[in-house]
Each structure stands twice: as structure tokens, then as C-alpha cells.
């Protein structure tokens, strides 16, 4: 355990988040996503885990330390439902709420078609799988920057 | 870079700090300390780095996330000067100030004789070497706990 760091962020996840730079992407996946096979293509090369919690809970932990990229429109994507690309299921609504909370404003996630998502995911820095059992609990986040001269950036 | 995390904590150091549990110890060493040879005996097995900064700056970064153990008397040790075990050189005074700041009270570090320090260091979880060039910039910290139900521990 560490002070001021969400305990859901284990050592391997923290290592990956700290290693990522501006523009690198991270996948948060549900339990049906082919995490292991896709993660082999990523920079980390193996699956990372925030087990036994919902996608929204995992996203909350990740976004507590990882800055999202700007423009905000392109920094958070969701896997589109096949045949219903504009439908936002509850699992995605919950994650949207976490993103909005950290942004302090409402910026809807962009949609990514399922197979396009797989290809994008292979180019990610890492895949963090979760305990999310609901379908389409798959998201892609682009890392932003922490500006100099902030209180915690001495 | 991550939000709310000192940028001096690189990915490998963060990984080690998060992996440590209650009672595990961490060495902060100066540039003359035999870090590489001693680190081979530690749990991590290789030297970790917070390069190019003073011991106090590195300790500030580490203690921004790592809780110290209680009782406070035994959670921070310093390498004693050979022939002057009670003398506190400037490099140790600066680190003491960082410890006191995070503790919110003054609790002097305990002294460890040089060769005893080497033996203690081999039993540590890890060795974090710094850019500290002054002699006796070597310290041993014991990790404490983060209690449940704190704001960042949901």
C-alpha cells in the first residue's frame, strides 16, 4: 500500500502507467476480451490486471494518476455494440461518468467498431483486464501530459 | 508523468515501493555505497535509481508515497560516521528534515555502524541509489501501513 495512491493500482499497473508517455494508449478490457492474445502485441507484451472489480472501478483507479490527452474528444474510446453503434450500455455509462468526473466536464467517448478496436488495442502500450463481466466493457485511453510547475512536480 | 506522483519516482522505483509490505526495508544510498553488489542480495536483486539528485530530494520523493513504520523510533536509520557515531553531517540533517516534515514531528534517526549497515542493507527489499556525492548519505527505511477507509483507499 502507498499513500495517496489507489490500492487497486498494483505494482505492475503502476509501472506501466509511469512508463507511458504522451500519446501512448492503454486498453481497459472486460473478462471476455481476448486480453492475453492481444496483449502479446502491445509494448508491455503481457496482460496487466485490475482483477475482481468493474470496468468503472478500474478506470477510476487508472484516471486517478493517468492524465488524459487533449483534445478531450479523442482521449477516451469505447467498443461499439455490433449492430447498435450508438447505443451506450450501462457498463459504458458508468465509465463515462468516471471520465466526466475527472475531466470536470462531459465529453462523450468516441466509438470504435469491434474489429477496429482489436487492431487499435494491438498498438496500445498495454492491456489492463478487469473483473467486468458485462459485454462491451472495453475502452481505449490516450495518455496526456502533466505540466511543469505543478505542486507535485517539483 | 503521472498526476499527484512525484516525477522523481520512476517506474521501477514505484513498482518496488508498491510491492513492499509492512516491515520491509528500503535503502537509500549515496554514490560511493556498494549499491550494485549489495542490491544483488536484496529482494529486487538489482539496483534501483533516483539519479542526479541529493539524498534528501530522493527521500522526499519516496516518503511522498511510502508510509514509515511505527514506532517512529525504528523506522528510519542512518549510517554512522566511523569514529564519530553521534555526529550528524549536513547530508543526514537534510534527510532528517524530510522525515520530520512527513512525520509532522521530530524523531531522530537511529544510527547503524557502517559494516552493520551493509548487512542490514543486504536484507532489504531494495536499494535505491541517488546522485548524492557527500559521504554517509546512506539510509534505511522501514515501510509502515496505510489504514483502511482513508479517502484514497476505497
H/E series of chain A, N to C?
HEHEHEHEHEE
If you average the pLDDT of chain A, what whole number results?
95
> Any idea what the CATH superfamily of chain A is called?
RbsD-like domain
Find the count of extended strands of chain A (DSSP E, 2+ residues): 6
Question: Which sheet architecture does the biggest sheet of chain A show?
Answer: 6 strands, mixed
How much strand of chain A? Answer: 15-25%
- CATH class of chain A equals Alpha Beta
**Which structural class best describes the helix and strand composition of chain A?**
alpha/beta
CATH architecture identity of chain A:
3-Layer(aba) Sandwich
Largest interface, C-beta closer than 8 angstroms, per-chain residues: A-B, 26 and 26 residues
Shape category of chain A: globular
- How would you write the strand order of the largest sheet of chain A? 2-5-1-6-3-4
CATH topology of chain A: RbsD-like fold
Cα separation of the termini of chain A: 23 Å
- As residue ranges, the low-confidence spans of chain A are none
User: What is the percent of helical residues of chain A?
Assistant: 25-40%
This entry's quaternary arrangement is homodimer
Task: Give a structural overview.
The structure is a homodimer of 154-residue chains. Chain A has one domain: RbsD-like domain (RbsD-like fold, 3-Layer(aba) Sandwich). Chain A is 30% helix and 16% strand. Chain A contains 5 helices and 6 strands; from the N terminus they run H-E-H-E-H-E-H-E-H-E-E. Chain A has a 6-stranded mixed sheet. The interface between A and B is medium-sized, with 26 and 26 residues.
